[in-house]
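Appendix C reproduces, verbatim, an entry submitted by the partner laboratory led by Prof. M.T., so that reviewers can inspect both the input and the predicted structure.
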Amino acid sequence: MKIKFCGASSGVTGSCHLLTTGNHKVLLDCGQFQGGKAQEALNFEPFPFEPSEIECVILSHAHIDHCGRLPLLVKRGFTGKIYCTDATGDLLDVMLKDSGFIHEKDAEWKSKRAARAGKPPVEPLYTYKDACEALKYVEPILYDQQIQINDDMKIVFNDAGHILGSAITELWVKEDDKESKIVFSGDLGMVNRPILRDPTIIKKADYVIMETTYGNRNHPQNATSIKQLLDIVLKTTRRGGTVVIPSFAVGRTQELIFEFNKFYEEHSDYKDELDKLMVYVDSPMATTATEVFRKNAQVFDEETRDYILRGDNPLDFKNLRFTRSTAESQALNFDKSPKIIISASGMCEAGRIRHHLKHNLWDARSSVIFVGYQAEGTLGKILVEGTKDVTLFGEEVHVNAEIYNLEGFSGHADQNGLFAWIAGFRQKPKQVFLVHGEEQSKIDFGKLIHDKLAYEPVVVLGNSEYELDMNTATILNKEQAEADAISDEEIHDVRSKISGIHNDIENILYNADLVMGRNISPEKLIRINNIVQEMEKATINLGSTVTEEDRSSAQV
């Protein structure tokens, strides 16, 4: 068995790893390179494998640096399944279509410039139509479901806590009558963050492929960043300025909505001020993504689920507005009243955020707050580093606005979080591969786990390939894996989940007694009925599974 690292091996974008056995070729992610002209150019290069030979893609999550070349993969010959969580599948529909549209528009703009220079037109990396075609191959599955993807491989998705639907993949591979287990971290999230659950601790693996985005840095406490955010908002709006927040449409935007919701609810002493302060989410994709979040509340953390069961939508409040049309977006820059604008993209490389920066960077009353990772070469990185002059839409803009970088909002685990996750393995994996980080970040994190855990990790650099010797590895055989899968701990976990569902239903029924029949709309009644029908089917299937004869036990 071989593993070839084809992306996110020399940086943090373009995640793509090829697993090859004697009978199968499987991809872990197929992401887009981002960050500047040199990185973007890599997307147009041939894949370091033949797409038509790839049997399936196992996708960790829906961020473009992990999924953004899937339409290109299909365009170049891939016809297999794309396995992901069901929430990731919903987000992919948003992300890939938007990405295809952006590539088309970008190519149109470049072609016009080329025509004026007497050069040939520019072809897009892929189109909206290509994105729609790729979506046909998506095969969504739930967290914690074990799925056989071929005769020799099975997978389980665990919550990575990074964005909605993000997954840590457990992959069992059988070759030469032996079975080994690979764990792919995807991108890991921070613990104790709003909306999402904490990353799952995995207990056993033969091989680990692990991200190291913040392998040599720790974030400020989230509570500190939230206080800073609110202090900046009040200081800026009191002097008549606008708060501009470049934010990733998926994940970070929803977390900000959640925090602003709490802020408006809990700070009654600022009520007069807050009643006049509007929060605008100016991104069609972020708007649609928020709707996807609301649809997938089943994967939220306990705090957020409690909000919902109390009848409070944590992703909505009275001063929140979503803008879709270009005219609505433009109007924000001619509205002189203090306000908050949350807009994509998070690194300021495209989208409406560049227009809002053009109209606000020059204004000393305004503030720009960065709340996520800024890759090298991006406009966001340049602004965070303190540049005083930028060019936007051919116009030079002097930076007078206050610039803030609140790393406590990062969706990535910091060094402490990464270490806690890798330290969770009960047995030392045979090998740990460090990917998805700048070179120094990987080296520093590698030294940390060497010194504290006695690991000898591989710091992956470039498109390198490694042989995984299953014959000499510490193998988790099939019987061992199955025994582990039915431990007392996991039986207790399933029972707790069933009990928790029972309690949630009791709360829902209580609220239903209060509202059902009181001018309920036909549309809402239809939605409720559809969900109840799905629950009824699932309940019958659960009952049938619980009561059926366990033949493997009966044969012993």
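The chain is about 40% helix and 20% strand. Additional entries are available on request from the coordinating office.
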